[in-house]
Amino acid sequence: MTIAQIKAEARSAGFAARKAAFDKGKGQAAELLADWLAPHAGRALSGYMAMRTEIDPLAAMAAHQGPVCVPVIMGKGQPLKFREWTPGCAMVEGAFGAFIPAEGAWIEPEVLIVPLVGWDRRGYRLGYGGGFYDRTLELLRSKRPTLAVGFAFAAQEVPDVPIEPTDQRLDAIVTEAGVIHFG
């Protein structure tokens, strides 16, 4: 079985676990995320617009004391760019159906809230398969310290995410069950 096939099977299981957790509710996850972000006030933060059964970081993004942006997919095989977001700003549908601000400054984040399909206790995440966050984190981390916090349901934990040399580790994961720091 190839790594691509292993990851595809892991994604399928991850989506099922996330849907079941989503249907049960998220508990205090957004407040835990806001607490984790508080020491990073003033730093540029990237969040995301939740889609389907993703856990929603909007409340934590709105509470952040500093610039906030969301990812914009520029094209296949390219790193993400980030457009400034504020509560209530005009949004348009971007690539893959994710909403992005209709206008606004381009911001380079120092802290990223990262969506995912699955995660493990080593700090690895299973994404959607496009490599956008891995490529982006590698680029940002080559310039300066950049933090990546996964935001997910505890039920999305897997024993071991199948990894490749290009996969970037998370610095922490926040779930409704608590916060785990890696490395």
UniProtKB/TrEMBL annotation:
<keyword id="KW-0067">ATP-binding</keyword>
<dbReference type="GO" id="GO:0005524">
    <property type="term" value="F:ATP binding"/>
</dbReference>
<keyword id="KW-0436">Ligase</keyword>
<protein>
    <recommendedName>
        <fullName>5-formyltetrahydrofolate cyclo-ligase</fullName>
        <ecNumber>6.3.3.2</ecNumber>
    </recommendedName>
</protein>
<keyword id="KW-0547">Nucleotide-binding</keyword>
<dbReference type="InterPro" id="IPR037171">
    <property type="entry name" value="NagB/RpiA_transferase-like"/>
</dbReference>
<comment type="similarity">
    <text>Belongs to the 5-formyltetrahydrofolate cyclo-ligase family.</text>
</comment>
<dbReference type="GO" id="GO:0046872">
    <property type="term" value="F:metal ion binding"/>
</dbReference>
<keyword id="KW-0460">Magnesium</keyword>
<dbReference type="GO" id="GO:0030272">
    <property type="term" value="F:5-formyltetrahydrofolate cyclo-ligase activity"/>
</dbReference>
<keyword id="KW-0479">Metal-binding</keyword>
<dbReference type="GO" id="GO:0035999">
    <property type="term" value="P:tetrahydrofolate interconversion"/>
</dbReference>
<dbReference type="Pfam" id="PF01812">
    <property type="entry name" value="5-FTHF_cyc-lig"/>
</dbReference>
<dbReference type="InterPro" id="IPR024185">
    <property type="entry name" value="FTHF_cligase-like_sf"/>
</dbReference>
<dbReference type="InterPro" id="IPR002698">
    <property type="entry name" value="FTHF_cligase"/>
</dbReference>
<dbReference type="GO" id="GO:0009396">
    <property type="term" value="P:folic acid-containing compound biosynthetic process"/>
</dbReference>
